[in-house]
Automatic annotation (TrEMBL), chain A:
Domain COI1 F-box: 55-94
Coiled coil: none
Compositional bias annotation for Polar residues: 24-36
Organism from which the protein derives: Rubroshorea leprosula
Superkingdom to which the source organism belongs: Eukaryota
Main subcellular location: nucleus
Full protein name: Transport inhibitor response 1-like protein
Native organism taxonomy: Eukaryota, Viridiplantae, Streptophyta, Embryophyta, Tracheophyta
Pfam families per record: F-box_5, Transp_inhibit
Alphabetized SUPFAM superfamilies for the sequence: F-box domain (SSF81383), RNI-like (SSF52047)
From TrEMBL, chain B:
Organism name: Rubroshorea leprosula
Biological process annotations from GO: auxin-activated signaling pathway; regulation of DNA-templated transcription
Pfam families: AUX_IAA (PF02309)
Annotated region described as Disordered, given as residue ranges: 24-64
Keyword list, A-Z: Auxin signaling pathway, Nucleus, Repressor, Transcription, Transcription regulation
Protein name: Auxin-responsive protein
Function: Aux/IAA proteins are short-lived transcriptional factors that function as repressors of early auxin response genes at low auxin concentrations.
SUPFAM superfamilies: CAD & PB1 domains
Listed PROSITE patterns: PB1
Principal place of residence: nucleus
Matching InterPro entries: AUX/IAA_dom, AUX_IAA, PB1-like
Gene Ontology CC annotation, any one: nucleus
Oligomeric and partner information: Homodimers and heterodimers.
Top-level taxonomy: Eukaryota, Viridiplantae, Streptophyta, Embryophyta, Tracheophyta
Length: 629, 193
């Protein structure tokens, strides 16, 4: 499933123990260090004249050893041992992860790490997904392409998340790296089918092209036809988010020419009949499939009959299939076609499929091996009970609302949550949208699912209490941080007082990512968290009554964090400026043009502050509506 | 009842707004089936009030529904997801009325389900989106003025009629096939009684 990768990208692996590679406070010397091996044999007790030779030996040994270090936390730690280790680590690091594209410049990154094969780059803060960040804020890929073109001849893989990528960027990337193999774009925007066409025609060694939840403009360009003719080494083609019509004949040819293809996720303009044709070609090899619309085409060439579709046997050849998604315009009558693969599935994404309990039941009954399940709340609590009854191996559940409004009906509730907690003890990650919830059910989950690492509960109506007792949801979330000892990511909702935050500060010692909305009573809430959670990396807050006092209580913490986002809270320009003054390596951005008109001590209720550590001077590409303190 | 026909900066829908049907027929909320959002968005820097409606683009400004003010970005669902959850296909008890639609000059037929639309304005808007053209302004006397296209349909008796002459319910029950005519042929049908 696409979110294998999306999850990798959202997991916050930054370890508190060693500073991440995007920031080096201890290495201001190292920055100036010359790579010509000269005198780092301190403490070796060896005569000066022999020191350079020994350095080389040491470097060679280190080179061979450090190659085996893959975890970036380990590498960060190794780079701090001494200058020698720093240097060798830098040239042996082949996977470069940059969690915030503004924390370090392309030039600095490529100066330090010279042999990078794979780059992961993340841009905008997550709240950009929900329209809280105006268009044009930044996170441009262009400067990185320019830099990489010069520095990284062996770069093969680029994974971007929430970056702004243009058609020109795609073209330049392909032109400057002819051996390029893998492009993954998650939640990106700024490009269109024109850029895709140029990219695929130039990248003759392309193995992976994954477009995940990205916005792709329709330039009415038949990009699929631009793949080179003849045999292709394509292994993965994911384009389910591309909202443009495609040339099916070209796609069919491409799939036929790609014997290594294992992952294919179609967009909603591919009909079920066309899907079946592709399965005939590539079915046995596919491990990951996105079905496209899963309904009949409403586009019929003049004169053609619609062929009879063989629903029963279409999937029987798909013996390797473990991950199934799509169903973009599902006709539930066709669902039985997937029976042959259910037992092997470890991952099933129905989150675009409007199906009810009765339609789900016969499918889920067969899915004994399911570990990851994404679904719409249209299946209701009864549907979740059916999941709980069968899916004993479930690790990750996401329940999305079919009607994403505050005042919608809400077909799932604490009943579904309770059932899941009782049926799926191995649960590690949950995202649950609902309208009604109780502390009791949340507490039950905290006890029944001790392996929880990610707990994200979204009670859609703001400030909603426990609907049975009328109490705030403090105790439920308190139980989660207390009982789930492995918890690293938490999103809270419902009516919450400062007490909830005191629990988080007291028990949430491993929490790295925290999302807060419409919660808390006073500055104390935020203070508890900033003072209590040593591993905090990413904190995003909206519409909560936290002000300057709280903001200033976190100064000890901000260099350890990737970012802090606060919008529509109770900050003043003065408070933000004070933070910026005290912390020279923090970039404090005020977003929204009204900040300038305000008095320094006016509370900025409608505006946003985004603050992140950086080794660079503040960026120069900021638009008008951004003020950098 | 005045009502804008919704989004789509490129179609100037106000000018071609059609009001058809029996007097007293309710005009219903516009729900476009087809997504026009993926044309390159205009550089719109405003953070808009967002409705949970379908077929909306991030960059477009909208009026909030009268019932309750929607908060920007809440609940926290990506717009892409909000916009792409399909309405339920026709219930088995009430199968859709599928008709083939052809347009003079277009290489492909389309098939549409008439039951999905609540009235002529919606249907015509959807056709405009599908085939990328503009239907003129309808009047009983003169048919569709202002465009070289006219929407026509073949009824149960095999006659070709201009779309819009009869009440909606009668139309969807008697329509067998749809054809968007072009040019002089279209004008020939334009005279109502």
């Amino acid at each position: 499933m696409h979110h294998d990768r999306a999850d990798q990208m959202s997991e916050d692996e930054d370890d508190h123990r060693s500073p991440p590679s995007d920031l080096e406070f201890t290495s201001s010397e190292a920055r100036n260090y010359s790579t010509v091996g000269s005198g780092s044999g301190s403490g070796s007790g060896v005569p000066e004249s022999q020191a350079p030779y020994l350095d080389q030996v040491l470097d060679n040994v280190l080179d061979n050893v450090l190659q085996f270090l893959t975890s970036r936390q380990d590498r960060n730690a190794a780079s701090l041992v001494c200058k020698s280790w720093y240097r060798v680590e830098a040239v042996t690091r082949s996977e470069l992860f940059i969690g915030n594209c503004y924390a370090v410049s392309p030039a600095r990154a490529s100066a330090r790490f010279t042999k990078v094969r794979s780059l992961v780059l993340k841009g905008k803060p997550r709240f950009a997904d929900f329209n809280l960040l105006p268009q044009g804020w930044g996170a441009h890929f262009s400067p990185w392409v320019a830099s990489m073109a010069k520095a990284y001849s062996c770069l093969e893989k680029v994974h971007l998340k929430r970056m702004s990528v243009t058609d020109v960027d795609l073209e330049n990337l392909a032109k400057s790296l002819p051996g390029f193999k893998e492009l993954v774009l998650v939640c990106c925007e700024g490009f269109g089918t024109k850029g895709l066409a140029a990219f695929v025609s130039l990248c003759r060694q392309l193995r992976v092209l994954d477009l995940i939840e990205s916005e792709v403009a329709d330039d009415e360009m038949d990009w699929i036809s631009h793949f080179p003719e003849g045999e292709s080494c394509l292994e993965s083609l994911i384009f389910d988010c591309v909202e443009c019509l495609i040339n099916f004949q070209a796609l069919e040819r491409l799939v036929a020419n790609s014997p290594s293809m294992k992952r294919l996720r179609l967009n909603r303009h591919v009909s079920i009949g066309q899907l079946f044709r592709l399965l005939k070609i590539r079915g046995p090899q596919l491990t990951h499939l996105g079905t496209g619309s899963f309904s009949l085409s409403d586009l019929v060439p003049q004169g053609d009959q619609e062929p009879e579709l063989d629903y029963a046997s279409a999937f029987t050849a798909c013996k390797s299939l473990v991950c199934l998604s799509g169903f973009r315009e599902i006709v539930p009558d066709y669902l039985p076609a997937i029976y042959p693969v259910c037992a092997n599935l470890t991952s099933l994404n129905f989150s675009y499929a409007n199906i009810n309990t009765e339609q789900l039941r016969p499918i889920i009954r067969h899915c004994h091996n399911l570990q990851i399940f994404w679904v719409l709340d249209s299946i209701c609590d009864e549907g979740l009970q059916a999941v709980a009854a069968t899916c004993k191996e479930l690790r990750e559940l996401r329940v999305f609302p079919i009607d994403a409004r505050e005042d919608s009906e809400g077909p799932v509730s604490e009943v579904g949550l309770q059932a899941i907690s009782e049926g799926c003890p191995k649960l590690q990650s949950i995202l649950y949208f609902c309208q009604r919830m109780t502390n009791a059910a949340v507490k039950a989950m905290s006890k029944n699912c001790p392996d929880l690492v990610v707990f994200r509960l979204c009670i859609m109506e703001r400030h909603r209490p426990d609907h049975v007792t009328g109490d705030p949801m403090d105790e439920g979330f308190g139980a989660i941080v207390k009982n789930c000892k492995k918890l690293t990511r938490l999103a809270v909702s419902g009516l919450l007082t400062d007490k909830a935050f005191s629990y988080i500060g007291k028990y949430g010692k491993l929490v790295r990512t925290l999302s807060v909305a419409f919660a808390g009573n006073s500055d104390m809430g935020l203070k508890y968290v900033l003072e209590g959670c040593p591993r905090l990396q990413k904190l995003e807050i909206r519409d909560s009554p936290f002000g300057d006092v709280a903001l200033l209580s976190g100064l000890h913490q901000y260099y350890n964090m990737r970012f802090l986002w606060m919008s529509s809270c109770r900050l003043t320009r003065q408070g933000c400026q004070r933070v910026a003054r005290e912390m020279p390596h923090l970039v404090v951005e005020l977003i929204g043009s009204n900040w300038e008109d305000m008095e320094m001590d006016d509370v900025a209720e409608k505006l946003s502050m985004y603050m992140y550590r950086s080794v660079e001077m503040p960026r120069e590409d900021a638009p008008d509506f951004v003020t950098i303190m | 009842m005045e009502k804008g026909l919704g989004f789509g900066n490129d179609l100037n829908l106000k000018a071609t707004e059609l009001r058809l049907g029996l007097p007293g027929t309710d005009e219903v909320e516009e729900q476009a089936d087809y997504n026009v959002r993926n044309k390159r968005p205009l550089p719109d820097a405003t953070v808009a009030e967002e409705c949970g409606g379908k077929g909306k683009s991030d960059a477009e400004l909208e009026t909030a529904p009268p019932a309750k003010t929607q908060i920007v970005g809440w609940p926290p669902i990506r717009s892409y997801r909000k916009n792409n959850i399909q309405a339920k296909k026709s219930e088995p008890e009430a199968p859709g009325i599928y008709v083939k639609v052809s347009m003079d000059g277009a290489p492909y037929l389309r098939k549409i389900d008439l039951k999905v639309y609540q009235g002529y304005p919606e249907l015509l808007k959807a056709l405009e989106n599908m085939f990328k053209f503009t239907i003129g302004v309808y009047s009983e006397r003169e048919g569709y003025k202002g465009s070289e296209y006219a929407p026509t349909y073949e009824d149960k008796d095999g006659d070709w009629m201009l779309v819009g002459d009869v009440p909606w319910e009668m139309f969807i029950n008697s329509c067998k096939r749809f054809r968007i005519m072009k040019g002089s042929e279209a004008r020939g049908l334009g005279c109502g009684v």
